[in-house]
DUF503 domain-containing protein
Amino acid sequence: MIGYVLCECLIYDVQSLKEKRSVVKSIISRLKQRFNLSVAEIDYHDIWQRTAFGIAVVAISQTRAEQELQKAIKLIDADERIEITKTIYEWL
């Protein structure tokens, strides 16, 4: 089972693309270190207060994939610099 989530976010207290990239890289790095998943910034590259992450995981069941994706979402949500505005799950 392949689970995928599109996670659109607002980034607070950044005034430039450089500051945005710092926040995004930090989150991506933490996700990759803590969980067995793939993650990338997939949209809003030139807008400094928005981003979208694509997060994918391969698991033996949909339940297990969903658990891993929810852990990733919780990690993002725990970061005070960023707010999740939209999440879309897909299953393959």
User: Anything to note?
Assistant: The chain has one domain: 2-91. The longest helix spans residues 17-34.
